[in-house]
Design brief:
The protein is an alpha+beta fold. It folds into two domains: about 80 residues, Glutaredoxin, CATH 3.40.30; about 110 residues, Glutathione S-transferase Yfyf (Class Pi), Chain A, domain 2 (Up-down Bundle). The chain contains nine helices and four strands, in the order βαβαββααααααα. The protein has a four-stranded mixed beta sheet, covered by helices on one side. Helix 1 runs parallel beside helix 3 and helix 4 runs antiparallel to helix 6. It starts with a strand and ends with a helix.
Length: about 220
């Protein structure tokens, strides 16, 4: 069966997977689903989040694992290196991006993107975490030409759709240029956004945004 990607076009995690599928040249069907605790959706992802990848063998969740699965079953350029150390190094970078940049920034999404508010204490914690995480990332890569080597990889997909949102949080709440904390990050984001695959993802994200914002604010 053709792979089916369940999620919505405004989700950065969904877009990591979508970009990877496009880069691999893998045919897939996109099924619009939002996070929910409804039993029918929990049957395909027990935590109720997206993305979910539907395969001939069953359903997969958790973005990093989905990316690795896609790389193993699809033709096209490799998203993960086969050499053991290089493979582990790439996964280390992906873990750092998610744990020390994406997840801290997410704590402030409510205020930055959805008209809510977060406490000053949370903002102070997030600002410190984003500076520390960005500097740590800069110590492990120079972003030249890509996050984890000489070719596009799964780490670039995670970086592109994590660091850009974290930068928006830092700019709006703290008047902080997060890209300056990781020299080379801005140039790489610009280069990645020029890929035809990333342009397609961006267009679909923009088209889906209004519907998602309505959903996020409690609309139908």
């Amino acid at each position: 069966m053709m792979l089916k990607l369940h999620g919505f076009g405004a989700s950065n995690y969904v877009n990591m997977v979508k970009l990877a599928l496009l880069e691999k040249g893998t045919e897939f069907e996109f099924v619009v689903d939002y996070p929910t605790q409804e039993e029918d959706f929990l049957a395909i992802n027990p935590i109720g989040k997206v993305p979910v990848l539907e395969t001939e063998h069953g359903f997969l969740s958790e973005t990093a694992m989905i990316l690795e699965y896609i790389d193993r079953v699809s033709d096209g350029p490799a998203l993960f290196p086969s050499e053991p150390f290089a493979n582990a190094h790439l996964k280390q970078i992906m873990h750092m991006i998610e744990l020390y940049i994406e997840l801290p920034a997410r704590r402030c999404y409510a205020e930055v993107f959805f008209g809510g508010s977060v406490s000053d204490e949370t903002k102070e914690q997030v600002k410190a975490a984003l500076i520390k995480g960005s500097r740590a990332l800069a110590r492990i890569t120079d972003f030249s030409p890509y996050v984890a080597g000489d070719s596009f990889s799964a780490a670039d997909a995670m970086f592109l759709y994590s660091f850009d949102l974290a930068s928006a949080v830092a700019r709006k709440l703290f008047d902080l240029d997060l890209r300056a904390e990781a020299p080379g990050a801005a140039d790489l984001i610009d280069r990645l956004n020029q890929r035809d695959t990333a342009k397609q993802v961006a267009a679909e994200r923009d088209a889906a945004m209004e519907k998602f914002l309505k959903y996020a604010r409690g609309g139908k």
